[in-house]
Amino acid sequence: MLLWPTQMKNKPKSAFEQLLAIMARLRAPDGCPWDRAQDHRTLRFRAVEEVYELLDAIESGDDHEMAEELGDLLMQIVFHAQIAGERGAFDFETVCRLLVQKLIRRHPHVFDEVRDVDTPQAVLAQWDEIKQAEKAGGRGPRHSGLDGIPKHLPALLRAEELVKKARKAALLPRTNARRRSLSQRELARRLFALAGYAQSRGWSAEELLRAEAREVEGRLRRKERQRAVRKAA
User: Fold this and answer.
1) Model confidence over 202-216: pLDDT tens digits?
2) Are the CB atoms for 190 and 180 separated by under 8 Å?
């Protein structure tokens, strides 16, 4: 059973209503000094930390811990929505409404008459197609096949996304037949050895890979622009 602070009146019915009310109370003029001092930028990396803690909970198989970590992640979403609501930008209702609309729009095989999407791979392909159409007609259209990679992804994840998008845009070959095929275990050992070598030299493997990914992305974008110019000529 949830315990409700005695100083708060008009107790909401559900736990979620309580969550929204508590966040508003924490941000009130006589609320918590720390919560009142936060803004979107000061909180921007806390959601990332909560996601990693959630990953740990999932891998541990502890359902109680997973529920708790999901709550911590939800708190970050509610926190940002509360701050946005205070400045008249949007509120949590807007966040939910946009998500509902997106889920319906990107699942026409469930909510519409489309019936030829019956595998996970087909669903992903359809999702990407709808997403690209949305971006093309939205406020922030994506002009490059490399757009849409979050810049704060860990370096290895960012490199993987860059390669995936570059191959999809035919900016990189699908495979490199000149190189000997590695097993997953061999690749893992090499990655770990490279991280160890970087550490022994006082280097950050994370920053080195991040810098390399930026350089490669720049070259690929130039290649993409040159290809577009040739097609237009």
Assistant:
1) 999 999 999 999 999
2) no
